[in-house]
Amino acid sequence: MFRDTQSSWLSTLRHDVPASLVVFLVAVPLSLGIAMASGAPLAAGVIAAVVGGIVAGALGGSAVQVSGPAAGLSLVVVDLVHTYGWRATCMITLLAGAVQLVLGVFKAARAALAVSPAVIHGMLAAVGVIIALAQLHIVLGGSSQRSAVANLLELPGQIANLHGHKVAVGVLTITVLALWTRLPKRVKAVPAPLAALAVAAVTAWAFGWDVTRVDLSAGFTDWAFPVLPQGDWHLVVAAVLLVALLAGCESLLCSVAIDGMHGGRRADLDQELTGQGVANMVTGALGGLPVAGVIVRSTANVQAGARTRWSTILHGVWVLVFAMGFGWMITLIPLEALAALLVFIGVQMVNLGHVRKVHGHGEVPVYVVTMVAVILLGLAEGVLAGLALAALLALRRLTWVTVLKREDRDGRLHVTISGSLTFLGVPRLTHELRTIPAGTAVDLDLNIDFMDNGAFEALHSWRLDHERMGGSVDIDELHDEWYALAASGARTFPMKSPLRAPDRWWLPWSHRRRDETPSVLSPDGAAGQAECLLTAGAREYHRRTAPLVRPIFTELARKQQPSHLFITCADSRIVPSLITASGPGDLFTVRNIGNLVPRKGSEPRDDSVVAAIEYATQVLGVHTITVCGHSGCGAMAGVLSGGVQAGSLPGLRRWLRHGDHSLATFIETEGDRLHPGALDVLCRVNVQQQLENLRTYRKVDEQIRAGKLELVGLFFDIGSARVHMVPPLRATPSVRTFDRRVAIGEE
Q1: What pLDDT score was predicted for residue 338?
Q2: pTM higher than 0.70, yes or no?
Q3: Residue 208's CB: how many other CB atoms inside 10 A?
Q4: Where in the numbering of this chain does the SLC26A/SulP transporter domain appear (predicted)?
Q5: pLDDT by residue (tens digit) across 584-597?
Q6: Assign residue 583 a region: left if phi > 0, alpha if psi is -120 to 50, beta otherwise?
Q7: Directed axis angle between helix 117-139 and helix 233-259, to 10°?
Q8: DSSP classification of residue 590
Q9: What is the mean pLDDT of residues 77-92?
Q10: Are 34 and 296 a contacting pair, CB within 8 Å?
């Protein structure tokens, strides 16, 4: 236990303390800037940073998320301050924290994730535009107006009346922020906001420029208890809920995003919401801004190497120590420099990456409407407008059914129905189906994710009518069997077996092809039938799969970079990509009878396997060579019989000589070649021997000893469809060893 505690403290000192210092350097300037944008005392931003670090960091559900004043809430706060005053705004923050606490206790955090990200991103982009327009006036030496539209209209006049020193400080700050990312890595260890404010402060002091200085006294010396807001209590309740929900949603979405940036424990969203609630109650009571999880500081925390919540807590401690002991340094910062920092942050909040993401899902209208409405109407109104449009688009998708028709070469009409089949889409569905001529042979693919009773009745009735008029309908369901299950209660026509209904790529042809197999090449012979299935399969690939995998293959076309050389048997029942869950470009595969690897210099000479090994290890640079055998291997049955079962196949008999070492090892270790399980034991031993044969090649053995190459043995039990690990004959640190009777899925 002492060792565990000691190791934990050492990890904190090594990783979390340095990360906390980085986040502290980022947090101080951002907190001051957000307080300024919120129309609150600058000290309120510092208080929120301290509370967000210590309280939310200690009680929250995310190990590495950093909480503090958030730019996305500044628009709400500035409106509340203008309407109710600062002390009443603090009470609203406190009450909003209580609401968050209750929601967290009742496990309501997941509901916040139901908000469309397009609405959130559109809202943040609008807040960024509003902040940038408002603070740009201060950079230019003037004062911001009440609304974004007013700020935009007043901007030309503000530009015409430039205030020299103040503009110079703002331009200098933005220049440093823009150029900082291009500097050497050692220089960029200092956060850009801190560097920009420091350069602006030093320059203004050195040249004696006439600038406005930051006043940190308000908020620390003038603190008083929060008071209840005066006015319509309906509006006060709405304000409390707005702060609670916006801060909660931003925190939870940030937490989910940060989870994808580190490999530690995933966040407990309900606990995170509870911690945020307590933090907002504390910051409201102390006169601070509302607190939320913020992506900039959280990302900086992860990138700095934080491992536990101690980094977040310590950053809050450093902010407190700095404010109490070195607060006088903050008064050296020009107010115009803080405004320039906010302009830069506001512009960055309009993230083009978010636009590309929502464009891929057809949600750009939601993003744009939310952003424009927030700018023109206000935050609450804009968010409601975005949510309403998102709901309308979701409803529209439920009504939108795509019906594609094309005629195959054999005269059959191929129809694909895509989308969600609900009663809302029945009019379009029936219109399209009625255009199909009577008596036509129809292949109908249902590429749907849902089908309700109204849609089933419409489709089923059309099918019965079409078949009554002399046509035929053959239905394949590409996902779940909505139609087959609905029709199973009272069907009046032959249906496929459940195993044959879905068109799954991994099913054998005999289990997934239609009853009437197409025969375009040679319908009379068995060989012709197989060729016909291959041709039909290729057409099916081009029609369904090729469009989905084309981006992957376009990337792979430039260069192959497999990580594994996979040597396995030519047996038709072994599908490497299926049993390893691998995809295109992962495996460099060699298949032969018996998954044999001829020893170096052995007879009969075979260079095909050797060439693959050399190319994989010396050109492609694979990290692993896997030999995969299987149960009931016909090649091993031939080896076990001493070549008798190879019959009059001279080429096979010569090839099976490469399995003699496997047989010798089997006889040495097992002895009895006549017991019922001898064949499968030999199949396993053969995998071990082929791993040993690989080491007869000097380059392979050198890479194994250097730890650059790993050998892995697999055994596929066909009857149980399980993959087992097979230990090598001799174990080295670079060779995996497992109990050969344990399946991979049970490790």
Answers
A1: 81
A2: no
A3: 8
A4: 13-363
A5: 999 999 999 999 99
A6: beta
A7: 100
A8: E
A9: 92
A10: no
